[in-house]
Write a structure and sequence with these properties.
about 240 residues, alpha+beta, six-stranded antiparallel barrel, binds zinc ion
Length: about 240
């Protein structure tokens, strides 16, 4: 069995598709994993939570509660509400749109903070991002100038919301690894040495290597709030939230 084709890498807005069942696997914890030839479901990773949703056939329905990626293969984990799939069968995939939309907004907001920091002349190197709804943050190598935290927070929040109000269509490009430094301004250690690298541009000319899903236009983020800017151990962590 080959790797699962990840449809969301090319079309992040697509939430429905058809796919062929490869394997139905009963797990030790009582749940079941369904493996498909292709998927629109986002597996947890890169700081973004997994999608949920349903897989349906004429006489069977599977609730997807968690999605994981292992060695190129996507595991749709959950339980059958009715019936069961057979290998080779075609099923209809439907991602929970409300949950995905929130994840898109939180993920794009994280990238937008990178852009806003650069626009303000603070050139920090992006590190870890945590785009989960329960306390999202982005972390940078480097520290902000010794202004007080409140002033930094206010300037950063204002710049983020200025960008959101201006609007910008999020774009994706697949590029050679040696193009990443020019396009992104830095090279993270997690990018593959061979094969194309997916670079996401949320606003402005600088991109960021990313495998996640995003809003179509940054206007959809809504209002972005900067909750806290913490500088410690040579790193800066920015906690944020999105509001309607
Ligand atoms: Zn990302």
């Amino acid at each position: 069995m080959g790797p699962t084709r990840l449809l969301y890498l090319e079309d992040m807005q697509r939430l429905e598709a058809e796919a062929a069942v490869q394997v139905v696997l009963d797990l030790d914890d009582g749940r079941t994993a369904v493996l498909l030839d292709q998927t629109v479901f986002y597996p947890q990773g890169g700081g973004q939570p997994s999608d949920m949703g349903v897989l349906e056939a004429a006489d069977a329905r599977f609730e997807v509660q968690d999605v994981r990626l292992r060695e190129g293969i996507v595991y749709h984990i959950g339980r059958f509400e009715t019936g069961r799939f057979e290998p080779g069968q075609t099923v209809r995939l439907r991602v929970d749109a409300g949950r995905r939309r929130l994840h898109d907004r939180l993920h794009s907001a994280g990238h937008l903070i990178d852009v806003a920091l650069r626009n303000l002349g603070w050139h920090l190197v992006p590190g870890k991002g945590y785009h989960f709804p329960d306390g999202p943050y982005v972390e940078y190598m480097g520290v902000l100038p010794k202004e007080d935290e409140k002033a930094i927070r206010q300037r950063l929040e204002a710049e983020c919301n200025r960008l959101i109000q201006t609007g910008s269509v999020v774009t994706v490009r697949f590029v050679a690894p040696d193009e990443v430094e020019t396009l992104c301004g830095y090279v993270p250690d997690y990018i593959p040495r061979e094969g194309p690298v997916r670079v996401v541009f949320v606003a402005g000319p600088l991109g960021c290597p990313c495998g996640g899903t995003h809003v179509r236009d940054i206007r959809e983020i809504g209002r972005l709030r900067i909750l806290k800017v913490r500088v410690s151990g040579g790193r800066t962590r920015v906690r944020y939230a999105v509001e309607d």
